[in-house]
Amino acid sequence: MERQIPEVVVSRLPMYVRGLTELHKDGIDFINSKDLGYRFGMSSDQIRKDLSYFGKFGRQGRGYNVALLLDELRQILGLDRQWLMAIVGVGRLGRAILDYRGFIPRGFKIVAAFDKDSDVIGERVSGVVIQDMAELEIGVIEKKVDIAIVAVPSTEAQEVINKLVRSGIKSILNYAPICANAPEGVRLESIDPVLALQSMTYYLAKNRDYR
Amino acid sequence: MERQIPEVVVSRLPMYVRGLTELHKDGIDFINSKDLGYRFGMSSDQIRKDLSYFGKFGRQGRGYNVALLLDELRQILGLDRQWLMAIVGVGRLGRAILDYRGFIPRGFKIVAAFDKDSDVIGERVSGVVIQDMAELEIGVIEKKVDIAIVAVPSTEAQEVINKLVRSGIKSILNYAPICANAPEGVRLESIDPVLALQSMTYYLAKNRDYR
DNA sequence: GTTTGTGAAATAGTTCACAGCA
DNA sequence: TGCTGTGAACTATTTCACAAAC
Q1: pTM exceeds cut of 0.85
Q2: Looking at the complex, does the CB of residue A93 fall below 8 Å from at least one CB of chain B?
Q3: Stretch B196-207: mean pLDDT
């Protein structure tokens, strides 16, 4: 059995991929952990430690080959293939997500959309035909969906998540502003700008001197 | 001098506020840490420990008064006032953010918008007139902006962040998919669905058995 | 009886510091 | 010399467990 890798380490890998991609574009071939750390605002030790969970990618006295490390990390994260996604909820928010141009170039493709509103079922949005929510379970299997995006109103979000779980979906990206729950074995991440803002205000409120 | 509160504790408070708000709406007056923990998928110990950094809000044998605790937490987080925000970048993404209905009911109001494209300057979007990026520094002071939202293309994002920092902004919510940096004393949070997806794929790729 | 608040213990995560390699 | 990879030391965070309050 393989050594268990801390979640926090895995969560930092995408940032490394992003930084290395920028360096690669800029034509930089080698970089050391100190410069990487400076770039990410973290210690060089941490970067070396993180990478050491997965292998030895560096060269003493030289640093890391950018292209090589990038390739390794992309493989570790499973970014060397395309991932298929479904979106549930095609209202204002759902449409904005379907419109988002950042997914495709990074290997994420929305191939199915579901809504319960009969007025929009059958409509084509960003190349995807909206299906009836009732077809969710069959739809995600037929379209081989890996990841589901939840963009329904708060009141319906947990119910939709439960339905997705029953459909066998193992990864859910939730945009509804609720305390969402998923069982063990299902990865659920929430995107919630308001939560981010609400912890920033703690620090703003504490340091009233800035005004 | 006050005891220093761990960032991770502060970052959980907004979730507590959200959960308690739901309970309050449902007409529940008292709740104990065990039930709260169940709701958030965490231990009751952790909730009690987190709250204990700020005071004693519970009653032994009874639990917490929902309305009271909610009020305390909102005050601690500075959610008992309205916060003014500016958005920089009014393209596809910026417009979607300006359109977002979730800010106002939680006390966050976008009062200024900036863009460098002369075609959109002067246009009114969601009640805000788009100003020239050149007026950024004056604009955020005039409008008493507390928090800035960055929604410009990746290539310009760091430059915009630097400009905001120079304007005296202490809190920035960044939507551009870059490795953003801000100096000590400026709080910078990034909203990035792709980063969230890219760590989920690690676990999906590891457990191929689900298909 | 129930549940909080909290030191103490345990666990997780980060930083140190240095041997070893280029 | 310069820099990685990594145990050891340290720090942060979580969990335990129980006295005190209701």
Answers
A1: yes
A2: yes
A3: 95
